[in-house]
Design goal:
Helix content is 42%, strand content 17%. It is α+β, with helices and mostly antiparallel strands. The N terminus is likely disordered.
């Protein structure tokens, strides 16, 4: 059972609080882009982008202070973890606790709902009033948006969230088949919402919206700098060192899109050579893991043999980077580290370097170069 990304480590009142904190820290910094909506001057666009960015930041901050007002279940998940009995050896297996997953999904979906509902409204909206900056959407489209966001499905996502929207200063007024949506706190925010929701279609469009990344809407893919912006300074520094060490290697980097930004949704960057992952990393606001990919368990055995012959110190470092996986899945493989035999999951066939220091980055590059012949 792998719950590292959701379990509360004691620095937050609950796991739900941690997940809200995570959302706030995965947001992009504010960078204005003066395009994306006709009929508004540059100053109105800039103000609208800033208002929407401020609104989302404050929404997560208010949610963290008082999650119950946002109808986010705080206690059940952590209460269950206190009493859950993990199977013996489960930490070395593929094991899913269905009740744990269900309770975690309940509070994460409740957190995700607010941003998702605004997005579903934004992509269906008819217009923005040029004078008042009020958003207009047909009543039918408004109902469609509620359904698409999960607002009227299931007990864990009750329909009546008007109190939460009121806390955030959002007002809904229905008249003659139209719903007018306004904000007393951030009156120009719907210009920013419109820009993000009507950005060019791409695999990263919803991710850019979730992160309130106006610059990202007009780029093919996020950049390494976008990832670093969300990390601890020490982890951002390790990525700097990694990028510098990678200079001149014949590789392309690809950043996988985020499907959401609650806890557990990590950045993933893959450095690719001839269509295969060679190196990569997973990153989140307080965690970084470097990965060296070997594609096949036999390649790990061969690397062990080579290191035992040439560099026993590096071999010791390398040996410690493969977590044992005693799962019974068809991908389980046996690898040989000198005199030790260990089982790993062949789904990854990778060395995993968690929260690396400077020496770990250097050793990772050495291993990658030896294996790939760079």
């Amino acid at each position: 059972m792998n719950i590292r990304h959701s379990i509360n480590d004691g620095t937050h009142p609950s796991s739900a609080h941690l997940s809200i904190w995570y959302c706030r820290h995965m947001l992009a910094g504010f960078h204005e882009v003066e395009k994306g909506v006709e009929g508004f001057c540059s100053e109105e666009i800039r103000k609208g982008e800033k208002d929407f960015h401020d609104f989302i930041c404050r929404m997560y901050e208010d949610m963290y202070k008082d999650p119950e007002s946002f109808l986010i279940p705080v206690g059940p998940y952590d209460e269950y973890l206190k009493t859950a009995q993990t199977r013996k050896g489960a930490e070395k297996e593929h094991y899913t606790d269905t009740k744990e997953s269900k309770l975690r999904n309940e509070f994460q979906k409740a957190i995700q709902y607010y941003a998702k509902f605004l997005y579903e409204i934004g992509i269906r909206a008819e217009s923005i009033c040029p004078e008042s900056h009020v958003l207009h959407i047909t009543s039918d489209s408004y109902e469609d948006a509620k359904r698409a966001s999960g607002m009227i499905r299931g007990k864990s996502l009750p329909e009546n969230r008007h109190a939460a929207w009121k806390i955030m200063g959002i007002r809904f007024a229905e008249e003659n088949g139209m719903v007018k949506i306004s904000s007393s706190r951030n009156p120009d925010m719907f210009i920013g919402l419109w820009i993000l929701c009507h950005a060019p279609e791409s695999a990263y469009k919803y991710m850019n919206y979730l992160r309130v990344d106006f610059q990202g809407c007009y780029r093919a893919m996020p950049e390494i700098e976008d990832i670093k912006e969300t990390l601890l300074p020490k982890h951002a520094l390790m990525i700097d060192r990694l990028e510098k060490a990678m200079e001149g290697f014949p590789m392309k980097v690809k950043i996988q899109r985020l499907r959401n930004i609650t806890s557990g949704f990590q950045w993933k960057a893959a450095y690719m050579y001839k269509g295969k992952n060679v190196f990569g990393f997973y990153a989140e606001p307080r965690y970084l893991m470097l990965c060296i990919y070997f594609n096949d368990a036999q390649n790990i055995n061969e690397m062990c043999r080579k290191l035992l012959e040439t560099d026993r110190k590096l071999f010791g470092w390398f040996q410690a980077k493969f977590p044992e996986r005693q799962c019974k899945c068809r991908y389980n493989r046996k690898v040989v580290f000198g005199e030790e035999r260990r089982r790993i999951c062949g789904l990854s066939c990778r060395a995993e370097v968690e929260n690396p220091e400077v020496s770990d980055v250097a050793d990772s590059i050495k291993i990658m170069k030896l294996f790939r012949g760079f």
